Amino acid sequence: MKKNQIIALLGCMVCCVGVLFSLFALSPFAADIPRQTFDRNFDTRVYLRKRSEIDLKVNSFYIAGTTKNSVYLGNWTGPYHIVQVGIPGLDTVHANLTIKDVKTPDDYRVFRLKVDSPYFYLSHGTMPGIFSGRLADGIASPSLPVQPPYFVDVVPVSPKLFALKSRVRSTQSNELATLKPDSPYFEVKPELLQKQVDGIFCVDGTLHHDKELNKMIYVYAYRNEFMVMDTCLNTVTRHHTIDTFSRAPIKVAKVASKNYSTLASPPIRVNFQSCVLGNLLLIQSPFLAKNEDKVAFQKGSPVDVYNIATGKYLYSFHLSRIKDQSPSSFAVIGKWLVAIYDHSLVMFNVNLPDDERSDEKLVHFNQTH
């Protein structure tokens, strides 16, 4: 081999190594991810395996409710469109919903769908209105003879009882409340959401109804806390998640000319998506634990599992990232975990122990894809 050829070959090798090094340096695997001060328990009994996937064509679907055999999807841009997906076959049935004798508002995309079979609920927080109907006919009408106040979110507890996160003028903050057909029709529970900054962003979170326990669970978005309440929001037990953010890490700016508040900088969301399964509360976390494998963390979002009755942290597992994306919503139906990634619905076979046994030694969970 001639000297010039050797030099050219060495030059190509150096260039290739340089390109590979640059790609690695720019990849998420080389990113400096800060570790937190808590440990996670990756229980060896937990497994998660991808089973099947369907293309939803658009990325605007969300999980609106589940039954033992189906998951129901709502659509952010088409709020009257509902999709029933069979479990485990993932066969789909599309349908359109209507609201009887109600003029469609200009901001109809504000409508949100909740399904509690055999009923469905369409809610509009600024209209405001809550409309319900049977899934069998797809026609909704006003749920209660009383009109609700303005609200941010609503969860149907029964056809005649609703839990709301409502904007209360007297306190200028968001509060939890109940709505029912008899007096008191609308009852605010101002002691539940504890204000830290502004009473709006700092108390943001997700409200769940656990049908098996007949409890309400509220998971704060920006602090390490969740609450367990009865369905009338009269009793409350407060529990903490394993991270250390006891105060909401947010900064709020007031726009005096328009009399409203906004976030002054992007907040650190402590608790992402969450769902309930019997006595278990599952919370997707954005944080890397002190003892967690960095590569496993980058391949899958950690989901921490808590006992709802005791508030005790049980264990964690990694929910796969697909096409470098974390799920926008997920739910567990028996031995199946269903998650939405962009325009795909993915089903995993999952085993989640519901007892409080923990191994003496923390172990890392090797997820099978």
Largest sheet: 5 strands, mixed
Radius of gyration: 24 Å
Report the helical percentage: under 10%
CATH classification class = Mainly Beta
Intertermini distance? 46 Å
For the biggest β-sheet, the strand order reads: 6-10-9-8-7
For the secondary structure, the number of strands is 27
Topology:
Elements: H1 3-26, E1 47-55, E2 61-66, E3 70-75, E4 81-86, E5 92-96, E6 98-99, E7 112-116, E8 119-124, E9 129-134, E10 139-142, E11 151-158, E12 161-168, E13 173-179, E14 186-189, E15 205-210, E16 215-220, E17 225-229, E18 236-240, E19 252-255, E20 260-263, E21 274-277, E22 280-284, H2 294-299, E23 300-307, E24 313-320, E25 329-333, E26 336-341, E27 344-351
Parallel strand pairs: 6-10
Antiparallel strand pairs: 1-27, 2-3, 3-4, 4-5, 7-8, 8-9, 9-10, 11-12, 12-13, 13-14, 15-16, 16-17, 17-18, 19-20, 21-22, 22-23, 23-24, 25-26, 26-27
What does this molecule look like?
This protein is mostly beta strands and 369 residues long. The chain contains 2 helices and 27 strands. The protein has a single domain, classed as 6 Propeller (Neuraminidase). Helix content is 8%, strand content 42%. The radius of gyration is 24 Å and the shape is globular. The model is unreliable at 14-30 and 357-369 (pLDDT under 50).
Quick rundown:
The protein has 369 residues and is mainly β.
Salient structural properties:
369 residues; mainly beta; Neuraminidase; five-stranded mixed beta sheet; four-stranded antiparallel beta sheet; 2 helices; 27 strands; 42% strand; globular; disordered C terminus
